[in-house]
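tool=predict chain=A
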Amino acid sequence: MTRNVDITGGCQCGAVRYRVASLGRSSVCHCRMCQRAFGAFYAPLVIVKGLQWTRGNRRLFKSSNVSQRGFCGKCGTPLSLENFDDDEVEIATGTLDNPERAPPTLQINHRYACSFTDHIGKLPEPDENTVAGNDAWNAAVISFQKS
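tool=predict ok
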């Protein structure tokens, strides 16, 4: 486990922020509920201890009989997966201010994975002209996301 009181994160608009005392297992979940909740092929999640919501209030959606999901009511960022029976909380890894602190170590519910996810890393990278165009586009973007 990583121990550090400076582990922080929040939603993209900055309305909801949190701090955690430590990080536990980091995984990606392939279940259909996580796919829908994140609007993605899988959900990167990390178990946290000592969670404190430091700004704003997350909204909650009871996604099943065993858990609820926290999200920002202003910008919609998925923030948490909270189990009812064991008080375990998982934070969306991408909402950490430094997601490099929680590289995934496990795939959960892999049998429900989209058939193509195992091959994403093998997809070709774009040609140099496309990379240059993407770099120019990204340089012109002014992000309104908060940290």
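The beta strands are 2-10, 17-29, 43-49, 52-55, 59-61, 67-71, 78-83, 89-92, 106-108. The chain has a mean pLDDT of 94.
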